[in-house]
Amino acid sequence: MMGPATQARHKPTERERSLRTALVFCLVDVALMGTAAFHSNSLTIFSDFLKECGDAIAVLAAFVTLRAVRRAPSQRFAYGIGKLENLVSMSVVVLMTLGAIAIAAQALYHLRHPVAPHGTVPGILIFTVYAFTGFAISLHNRRLLKSQHSPIIASQAALWFGKGSFDALMAVSLITALAFRGNSWSLYLDPLASLVGAAFMIHSAWSIASESVGDLLDAALEETMQFRILKCLAAHFDDYELLHKVRTRRSGSRIYVELFLEFDPQLAMGQVRERIDRIRRSVGDSLPGSDVTVIPAEETCYGEG
Questions:
Q1: Does the domain formed by 223-302 have CATH 3.30.70.1350?
Q2: 80 vs 16, 68, 126, 259, CA distance in Å?
Q3: 267 vs 263: CA distance, rounded Å
Q4: pTM beyond cutoff 0.70
């Protein structure tokens, strides 16, 4: 029989359910866009098909990673494998960048050798539906981030916002090209829209990378989080003598806080423990999903480490 803690670890989280829904949309999108690309010669539709294949792989990797991260810490990985979220987010960056480069290369070729697209009506319908879908999934992921930080969900929010923007742009460009297909300048709308879409992908990739790299390098929490910690310490100022150092970092969705505090040497160990528990609970309540450690320290033995 599994205990409550074990059952909780095996129960799918809201983040997993969100990614599972996104994965279903990605697979359907790949199938529909592949069909539309097969029946048309539009670079815009073919570029989006390539992008959707990469996005589906990225979402699948994120889903599998969250299931792995949910496991309890092992003896080898005492802090868990939360940084795997950051590594997968960086793999999403690589896929998005490669897709953008491939799209840009094809777009530049078609700018030099323009071709009139045909069979674009199915693509227009698909782009329109999935533009709304992409924005809806991105908004849902951003709502999840308000309750708990997660590098994977943050990267997925950026990914789906980029997808929604890309699909909306592609739909507009195809509609415009179809409406003005008798004009020679309309031949350039297809590759130009693809270039702008590639720029959206690069921007989204940069946003993901800038956040994931900091966590991989154990960067301190942002100032708003630091202020919450200092506010809690100020509320418990009478429980300790001196604050020597606050050390923070992220590991996936977990936050680790280490407080080096000096206590009155005249206090009994039991009294110090009671004060430590009060401070830990206060900081933990202020930062959901945090692991707070209070370390009694003296300036002479604390050092700069």
A1: yes
A2: 18, 10, 41, 21
A3: 8
A4: no
